[in-house]
Design brief:
By secondary structure, this protein is α+β, with helices and mostly antiparallel strands. The protein has two helices and eleven strands. A hairpin with a 3-residue loop joins strand 8 and strand 9. Helix 1 crosses helix 2. The longest helix has 20 residues.
Length: 202
Amino acid sequence: ENEPKLFWKCPRRFYSNGERYTASLSANDAHEIDKQIELAKKTMGAKNLKGDALYEAAGGNLDNKELVAGTTLYLPVHASGGLFSCGDGHGAQGDGEVCITAIETALEGTFVFDLIEDPGFDYPRAETPDHYITMGMDPDLDQCSVKALREMIDWLGAKAGLTHAEAYMLCSLAGDLHVTQTVNVNKGVHMMMPRANFAPKV
């Protein structure tokens, strides 16, 4: 009861030095922090067979802070035409997005689409300049972790030529599991693996 209670307010000002944007947040006007803005679209998906663009196997409300400009996002196409949609712009978000929202903002973006015939997987994946990313969405965080792990094991097998046992061991040694978000009905976990570990076996 004697601990101070902090109530963070919405960002009250944004500013730029010409290269980077920053949000200034305050708590009870006594504590203030600055947070670098990292613009990203957090809802991206294609239509699925049920006609629901938020169905996780086709993307949806991924809320993954790694999906910034320059990231490649793989979205399985489950319905004719794909019918991509996106929204839910974030200025900044921590892993977990534990307080209902991130810094919500309107965004415009340019997307480049490539159609990959028979990619060999049927669940969203991503690549950044430094990592490969697999995802798992489910109401149970344990099941999210299982899904993200199994997807990474499969990807390492297909791309790096590792056996299931080798890929499983590598995930334990070099893969990082992150809680993507805990605010949606279906929670999220993603695994990040350094790109260097995807070099084919010699």
